[in-house]
Amino acid sequence: MFQNIKRDFNKKESQVEDVKMFKFEQVKEIFKKFFEKKNILLYIVSLMLSMVSFGGNSALGLAPFALAIVAATLSNRIPIGIVYILSCIGTFVGFGANGLLNYFITSLVFFASLYIFKTKIQDESNERRKVGKNIIISTLIVQIVPLAFGTFYLYDLLIGIMQAIVTYIFYKIFVNSITVIRDHGYKSVFSVEEVMGACMMLAIAFSALTPIHVFNFSVKNILCILVVLILGWKNGMLVGATGGITTGIVLGIVDVGDPIMIAAFAICGLLAGLFSRFGKPGVIIGFVLGNTILTYVSNGNIVPIIVFQEILIASLGLLFLPKKVEFKIDDILSGATLLPETTSRTLEGSKETIRKLTNISETISEIAKSYTETAATVVDDELTKIEKENEEIFVKELYTNIEGMEENILYEEISSSDEIVSDLFKVLLINSRVTKKQLLEVFENHNNYIVGFSSENDSNTNQNIENDISVMLKKINYSYKMSKINFRYKKKIEENKKNVSEQLQGVSDIISELADNIEENSDNKEYQKEKEQIIQLLRQKQIKIKDIIIKKEESGRFKIIVYTNNCQDINGDECDVKTIGQVIARVLNEKLTLSNQSCGLRKGEDECIFTYMSKDKHKLQIGIAKATKDGSPVSGDTSIQTKLDDGKYLLAISDGMGSGPEARKSSKIAIKMLERLLTSGFSKDKSIKLINSSLAANMQDEDMYATLDIAILDLFSENMEFVKNGACPTYVKRNKDVQILNSISIPTGILENIDLAVYDKDIQSGDIIVMCSDGIIESNSEYKNKELWLKYLLEEMNNEDVQKIADIIISEAIDNDYGKEKDDMTVIVAKVC
Questions:
Q1: For site-directed labelling of 334, which of 8, 346, 491, 824 has its Cα 20 to 30 A away?
Q2: pLDDT at residue 614 above 80?
Q3: Which of 60-64, 151-155, 205-209, 780-784 is predicted least confidently?
Q4: Which helix (H) or strand (E) segment is 593 a member of?
Q5: Count of CB atoms situated within 10 Å of the CB of 542
Q6: Contact 450, 465 (CB under 8 A)
Q7: Exposed, middle or buried, 372 (CB in 10 Å: 0-12/13-18/19+)?
Q8: 447: phi > 0 → left, psi -120 to 50 → alpha, else beta; which?
Q9: CB 295: neighbour CB atoms within 10 A?
Q10: By mean pLDDT, which of 207-211, 508-512, 591-595, 624-628 is the weakest?
Q11: d(CA 699, CA 680)
Q12: 24: CB partners within 8 A, 6+ apart
């Protein structure tokens, strides 16, 4: 019993200790939260603001900045306990007991109004709790109610109204700029309005230091100058000038200073930002230059508007400031995740899409393998079976053809001996036909000799026997020829299976690659921060997006895809595509261009899709000229010039075999497939192999093939790739030098497996690329190496107009054959500029 009592007592004692420990941890956590680093600067600013009077007159009895900063802190959902206490201390220091009493009563009325008048809550802006009307009501009550118990003066009423308005205005300024003071270093970017508000807040706070001088230099002026220097250094001319104007206005109004001070800080900030490209020394020189100019203009350079010694001290502070200090002007980035709600669902959907695409890819790959295995089986095991089947067809065909030839001396042995017929078929497989000598050897191998016939040409040979042998040979060879038709058909099926296998494997590869890209985009956290910045920036501009994908390619090019709701304006006047592009470019610090715009309203869909890409470093001029072979209805050449989805440019020429409709058909198939495959995401190597297999599959008894000459230019990374498949050389002219890029590969559609000639070359402004079909090269018969005539022509040519160059080449090629189009001719000329 006593043991149980003791155990219960120890248990209760342990619970009491746990409660005490828990309370201690709670107090410790609250204390730690109050004194975070990001709150300490806010506390200092709040104290200094409370000491400053509006208009330099403390007789008003109210510190408008104290109530404004407390209300702004409350609106931002920041604990106001310490801020309120410090504001009371500051008010007492700046305005004495009467000022503190007035502020204390006003603040109590303000806090009471929060319970009487319902405040609106909004999470998507800095002013999360709207308390502006509470400020006006509480200020008016405290200022106007005493007038009812004493002598009424209209002046006092107007002063009370003015103080309410002033307090409300500075509340609005502080509520949107307090995040810069509190969260600098924790958030990445801020809007211009927020930074200007913060600049004004600091300038007002520095005014509390007006009485403080060190060696007769104003600490307030030095700090204000330093703020303007920093803004100009980090954000350039516009922000420097705006910061200077804001600082000048505060010093002019709060301290009742000379209006010329506003112009001085504005011009100094402007020039400081203008010279910011030269670093900190440039900023300092710009500020001093601005002060010198305005001083000379205003008073003949007698008394400096801003003391140069104070500028020097502030400049030393700027020079000692670390370079890693970041102060980006943009739109606010809240600490919360700002990606749209649809994004999380999209990521979940992406995982399911990845799984399905992977399964589809594996399934198609298995089908491709089965076709490959089938084709391989035909080559190995089924080949024997096909030969046996073909032998049976040969035997049936032979027996049918020799029917009614019983009088022939060879009929009985052939019709009754399977061994003889089988040996004859083997000879046919090797030689495709049987000779008289081979026929007699087969018979002799089976101990069958023809009486009266000699293999030597002598007069003893019976003419009838000779005729019988000759007729039988014709029947045997004809029977084999008929059986070969079936063998060719089987072979064609085998080749088609191989082609289908290659095509299916290509589709499998691209689907697998697509799944990998989706998974990469889903797991990509590299640009999460930038996405949140863009979304919040657009939100402040009243633009909401559904999702955004940011990807940086190996070349360094950005590709951004934005999904938005429809704008309900079919004409596009209300479309936000330009604004969205400007915001993204600012956040990524990249020059962008709109590469694709899909309007959901016009397509009958529920969303618009905008695709932006890094702007090319160069432009491309293209000229093209063509000529059809003399006497041919259509040209067998086909060409294309287009921009791909990845921002690269595709130039291609396909030359079909021969000329006319059939050549046109094969070259058109090659070019159309190339465009669709590359646009769909297939690699250039895989695309050409698929085109090759398709042309081979379309070949029946006649040949069907086409050359492919491809140039893919990346004007962002300043690089181009050439892929040649049986094509003519490409000429690259740089100044007077002309380089020839050649190929020894065969055209597509001839062989199942092809080797591609791929070239990679850097490009620069002024380069001229010339691509042509063989009709151009073969037109000249003077040179043994026919490629040289065009090289020499380009070297001598001074014209840089791409269309004129193309026209000149066509004209020269026609003149080479005395004004007659010897073959179909196509030339593409491209200039990087």
A1: 346
A2: yes
A3: 60-64
A4: strand 592-598
A5: 8
A6: yes
A7: middle
A8: left
A9: 19
A10: 508-512
A11: 26
A12: none
Cα gap 567→605, rounded to integer Å = 12
pTM over 0.70: no
> Tokens standing for 774?
């063989």
What pLDDT does 725 receive?
75
Start-to-end CA distance of the chain, whole Å, equals 100
Place of tokens 């062989």: 751
Q: Rounded CA gap, 418 and 454, in Å? A: 25
CA–CA gap between residue 244 and residue 247 (Å, rounded): 5
| Packing angle of the helix pair 381-401, 418-431 (nearest 10 deg) | 110
503-521 mean pLDDT: 61
Lowest-confidence pick of 97-106, 128-137, 518-527, 773-782? 518-527
Give the pair of three-digit tokens for residue 686: 């895989």
Q: Calculate the CA 179 to chain-centre distance.
A: 32
**Short-list 89, 80, 88, 181, CA closest to 126:** 181
Q: Nearest 10 degrees: CA dihedral of 413, 417, 423, 424? A: 40
- Helix H segments across 320-457? 341-379, 381-401, 411-416, 418-431, 436-445
Cα–Cα distance, 208 to 228 (Å, whole number): 18
Give the DSSP letter of residue 148: G
Among the listed residues 337, 344, 331, 341, the one whose alpha carbon sits nearest the alpha carbon of residue 542: 331
Indicate if the pLDDT at residue 486 is higher than 70.
Answer: no
- Residue written as token pair 């000022």: 99
pLDDT in tens, 247-273: 877 777 676 666 677 777 778 888 888
CB 358 within 8 A of CB 562: no
- Cα distance between residue 583 and residue 545, in whole Å: 12
Which tokens hold the place of 153? 């003066």
Gyration radius (Cα) of the chain, Å: 45
Please state, in angstroms and rounded to a whole number, the distance separating the CA atoms of residues 570 and 601.
Answer: 7
Calculate the average pLDDT of the chain: 75
CB half-sphere exposure, 97, CA atoms < 13 A: 0
Q: Would you call 149 exposed, middle or buried from its count of C-beta atoms within 10 A (0-12, 13-18, 19+)? A: exposed
What is the pLDDT at residue 803?
93
**CA 310 to chain CA centroid, nearest Å:** 49
- Which element (helix H / strand E) includes 659? none
Contact 790, 776 (CB under 8 A): yes
Average pLDDT over residues 148-177: 82
Residue 714: strand, helix, or coil: strand
Indicate the length of the chain as a whole number: 833
